Amino acid sequence: QVTLVESGGGLVQAGGSLSLSCTASGSMFRINAMGWYRRAPGKQRELVATMTSGTSANYADSVKGRFTISRDNARNTVYLQMNSLKPEDTAVYYCNAKYYSGGYYNENWGQGTQVTVSS
Fold this sequence. Notes:
This protein is mostly beta strands. Helix content is 0%, strand content 61%. The protein contains no helices and 11 strands.
């Protein structure tokens, strides 16, 4: 079992910046992809950005040019730098990891961290 621990988030004014980080820990696992999703009040969870073990990144259209995802594969950590934040970015942000362990492909989620952007 892989555990994901998130940090970062908080309250910021529109136009400001925040950063998130998420570290995966456990035993005998190999990360395939890590990324971020978010759930705004009254909405379904949606993809924000994901990155494979290489450098291939995928972003939601709504965050392209403002958010940057990066990974430290040696530390099993994924980061999300969020710039030019808008009130509509307000949501609970969840870290996600897809990984191999014991010959099986698994997926796990972090506990979520609140990001609030005031207008």
